[in-house]
Every structure is written in structure tokens, then in C-alpha cells.
Amino acid sequence: MTPERAPTVSQLLAFYLEAGVDCALADAPVNRLADPDLTPVASEAAPPRPVRTAAPPPAARAEPAQAPEAAILSAREAARTAPTLEALRALLEDFDGCALRSTATRLVFSDGNPQARIMFVGEAPGREEDLEGLPFVGRSGKLLDRMIAAIGLDRGSAYIANVIPWRPPGNRTPTPQETQICLPFIQRQIELVNPDVLVTLGNPSTQTLLSTREGIMKTRGRWLDYDTGTRVIRALATFHPAYLLRSPSYKRLAWQDLRAIAKALAPGASSSS
Ligand code: URA
């Protein structure tokens, strides 16, 4: 039998990129099959395995310092105590309960004006955001800028953040635990910005913040209440700009949502629509 030719380096790189791998977590590869935690129970006939004493380098394992339940509790405790947005950002910079922090390049906290009357919340940063440390600066960010401009505003008069402040590796979907760990921080951020209108962008942000299981097709364009605990803020879900880039025919509905938002922000608008 003719042996198969080994793949070239460029074929391997193409394979990894297609599989969503676009960053290295450590300089050296880690043989996870040699991880003692993963070693199956040795059969009686097998010779004893050598005991591995050296711990793997910390960067090689994207594991949080705490178990998820403990991390959720400490996130709630920490976020609650942040008196200002600066303090909240500093807390997040130091928070080691979410494994995403160790794979991301940097924290992506927010952009825009903390005094804005409107706050937009997306899901999680992507590659460009991770490199720049600002939310929505890539392709979907350019479309978000145009959406904001459509209601006569810009980043100087709007505030932008994400539910998850660190990029998930390869832009994978954040796990439910990661979302629950990050939730107290975005909740506190909303409370501190205290906008008149909260806009959730896309399904994950809408379902997480507005506590609904319904999909974006049903939730978009409907005014809902977001209760910070001290105040009820009017909230409206609309399509995520990345979705609009893939499905431009929904821009018509997004435009209707933007008009409803502009109306709610107009001077003299009533507090319910
Ligand atoms: N998508 C998001 O949800 N947030 C960003 O910051 C960028 C893309």
C-alpha cells in the first residue's frame, strides 16, 4: 500500500483556520493525551506509568482559577461593589474567574460616552476588537456606526459594550458558564451608565439581558423593561449587525427598530410606546 503523503505546512494551517483555530495558546504544543488527569485507569496487566511531576505552564491551559459556581458568586460580589465605571473596568482587568481572559489579547470594556442616553450591547468581541481593545471596530462595527448615525448619533453620544468582555478563542460561542460569570459585570455596567434606552444586538445579548428564551425574530422591535434593581430602563432588541451583513434583507426591519428608538429618544417622548 502506498503511504499517504504528509500534509504540507500550508495545508495544515488551512485546516486549522477552517477549524476555527487562529491563535496559539503557548509556544510549545501540549500533549493532552499525556495529561495525568485524562489518563484512563490502567489495566492490571499494564506496567505502571511514570509519574509526571512538572506542572504544565499556566498559559498552556485555558482554565479559570475558580470553579464556575464560585466564579459566578465572586463576579456578583465584585461587580456589586464597583462604585464607578473605572472601578468596574479595573475589577474586570484583575478578575481571574473567567478562562476567556487568559486566551484573549486584552479586555474589551466599552466605547463611547458614559453619559449617553442610549446603550448598545453586543455578544462578545471578535478579532479586531480583541486587538484594539474596543467593541465593534470590525466590519460589523462599521455597520453599527451607520445604524447609530441613522438615528442622528455617533460614538460620542452613544455607549457600546458587550455581554462578554473577552474574545472567545476563534470567535466560538461563549459557553453558558462564561456568560453567567460575565453577566454581573455587564449588569453593573448598565446600572452605572443608566441609559434611557438599552438596545440589545442579536439573540445572545437579548436572551441574556432581557431574560427571554424567544428568538430575535419575535423579540426584535418590541419594547421591554430592563430592571436594574434601582430603575426600569426601556429596552429594545434588534438584529446584530453581523447578521445584517449576512442577511441584508432584514435591514428593512432593523430600520423600523431604529426609527422606534429615535422616536423614544426625541424630546418630549413619553416613557412608554
Ligand atoms: N460582535 C459583537 O457582538 N461585539 C463586538 O464587539 C464585535 C462583534
Structural description of this entry:
The chain is an alpha/beta fold and 273 residues long. The chain has a single domain (68-265), classed as Uracil-DNA glycosylase-like domain (Uracil-DNA Glycosylase, subunit E, 3-Layer(aba) Sandwich). Helix content is 39%, strand content 10%. The chain has 11 helices and 6 strands. It has a 6-stranded mixed sheet with strand order 1-3-2-4-6-5, with helices on both faces. A hairpin with a 4-residue loop joins strand 5 and strand 6. Helix 2 (68-81) runs parallel beside helix 7. The longest helix has 18 residues, at 176-193. It binds uracil. Uracil binds at residues 122-126, 129, 135-136, 138, 140-141, 162, 242.
Sum this structure up briefly.
The protein has helices at residues 9-18, 68-81, 85-94, 100-103, 127-132, 139-150, 176-193, 203-209, 216-219, 241-246, 251-265; strands at residues 111-112, 118-122, 159-162, 197-201, 223-227, 232-238. It is of the alpha/beta class.
- What is the CATH topology? Uracil-DNA Glycosylase, subunit E
The counted number of beta strands is 6
Which spans have pLDDT < 50 for at least 5 consecutive residues?
A: 35-61
CATH homology group: Uracil-DNA glycosylase-like domain
Q: Which ligands appear in the coordinates?
A: uracil
Proportion of residues in helical segments: 25-40%
The CATH architecture classification is: 3-Layer(aba) Sandwich
Mean pLDDT: 85
| Helix-strand makeup class | alpha/beta
In the residues, how many domains can be counted? 1
Please give the order of strands in the largest beta sheet: 1-3-2-4-6-5
Based on Cα principal axes, name the global outline: globular
Helix tally?
A: 11
H/E element order: HHHHEEHHEHEHHEEHH
Radius of gyration: 22 Å
Proportion of residues in β-strands: 5-15%
Cα-to-Cα separation, first versus last residue: 73 Å
CATH class: Alpha Beta
Largest sheet: 6 strands, mixed
Family: Belongs to the uracil-DNA glycosylase (UDG) superfamily. Type 4 (UDGa) family.
GO biological process, one term: DNA repair
Organism: Bradyrhizobium erythrophlei
InterPro entries: UDG_Type-4/5, Ura-DNA_glyco_family4, Uracil-DNA_glycosylase-like, Uracil-DNA_glycosylase-like_sf
